[in-house]
From TrEMBL:
Protein name: Small ribosomal subunit protein eS6
GO BP terms, alphabetized: translation
Taxon lineage: Archaea, Methanobacteriati, Methanobacteriota, Stenosarchaea group, Halobacteria
Coiled-coil region list: none
Organism listed in the record: Halorientalis persicus
Keywords: Ribonucleoprotein, Ribosomal protein
GO cellular component: ribonucleoprotein complex; ribosome
Any one Gene Ontology molecular-function term assigned to this protein's record: structural constituent of ribosome
């Protein structure tokens, strides 16, 4: 059974929310690819639409949108997700996960693309009593 931590970014306010998703709601993410849109009801945001922007697996390896499928791949990278070069021309072999969400993924990053009528903090129960 799938079990994810979904990190939802609100580009309008700049806030992020970490939500644990399991069971039926987590199965809505399995098989989706980065860049796809998902209904926000899976994480408790009724009326909202989320775009999948990234994620990582249980070992911390990042998902890359230019690698097909859900499997691990070792590639020679000159920069981008999974490797940040420190000097010009530097390349490195890195292990990354493909763009498809699978059971091995532990964190999914998403951003809000379409908004509902209610406020995000109110829907998630994080209203006025924040730190």
């Amino acid at each position: 059974m799938a079990d994810f931590t979904v990190v939802v970014a609100d580009p309008e306010s700049g806030d992020t929310y970490q939500l644990d998703v399991d069971g039926q709601d987590a199965n809505r993410f399995v098989g989706r690819e980065l860049g796809e849109e998902v209904d926000g009801t899976a994480v408790g945001l009724d009326g909202y639409t989320l775009e999948l922007t990234g994620g990582s697996d249980n070992a911390g390896r990042p998902m890359r949108s230019d690698v097909r499928g859900p499997n691990l791949t070792s590639l020679l990278s000159d920069g981008g997700t999974g490797f940040e070069p420190t000097r010009g021309g530097e390349r490195k072999r890195v292990t990354v996960r493909g763009r498809e969400v699978s059971e091995e993924v532990r964190q999914i990053n998403a951003k809000i693309t379409d908004r509902g009528s209610e406020d995000v903090a109110d829907l998630l129960g994080e209203g006025e009593n924040d730190e």
